[in-house]
Amino acid sequence: MVRVLTLNLQHAAPARTAADAGGPAGAATVRRAGDEIAGVGADVVLLQEVDRGVRRSGGLDQAAVLADRLGMSYRFAASLAATRGGSLLPTRTSTPGRGYGVALLTRLPVTSWHVRRLRGGGPGRRRGHPPWLPHGWSWDVGRVLLAAVLRTEDGPLSVGVTHLSVVPVVARRQLAVAARALLTLPGPHLLGGDLNLAPGPLSASEVVPGLLAPLATGLTFTNARPRTQIDHLLGAGLVAAGPAEVHHLSVSDHAGLSVDVRRAHRPAVGG
Q1: What highest taxon heads this organism's lineage (predicted)?
Q2: How far out from the chain centre does Cα 163 lie?
């Protein structure tokens, strides 16, 4: 059995319910997040909106700090690179010196790491703004899937983390690409993260049912006033070994979501 936690970290910004709400992210909030995550007892931690060397969060390598505090190995993959001034820009590499993206932390042995870029939606019109002005347009940037093949007592387990577009049609396409990429690795498979899709649209996508099925249900957004679930744990060849838990931490505008998973029993072959 493996316990998995997904959390949109929001660069460890204090939660609205925290005593330091409205304050900056920094070493203290990252350490606090690490202590709270440790209390979940997860074997695998899937993080989104993680900063690495970004000015707004004190220039920390947040994944490295959390992994050290939790006694886990880790990998970070960026969807955006950060400039010295703190601006976030599209990047062609998943490992810039400074950036913003996802991280996978684990106490299980890692056989291999994998990264897959997920194309964004590109330029789009902003409602209510003239198209001839710069602020009349937005840019839906690319995202990234980070995956690891883990070694367990029952054999390999492939786990991926991603943070999808806020544009639903783009998020569903990215989810399909991410799921198919993950499924090329040794199974069973688990994909988690902030998918920016509620359970209804998620089930209507071409990914679920068929390839990956939901393993955990719970209201995760917002952390202070939970109204919907956009953070998910999906699996193939896995079943939940107990009820999911929602974790309202003192950082982030998202709650964490965890569940214990085990391999699905294969039906016996009759003769």
Answers
A1: Bacteria
A2: 5
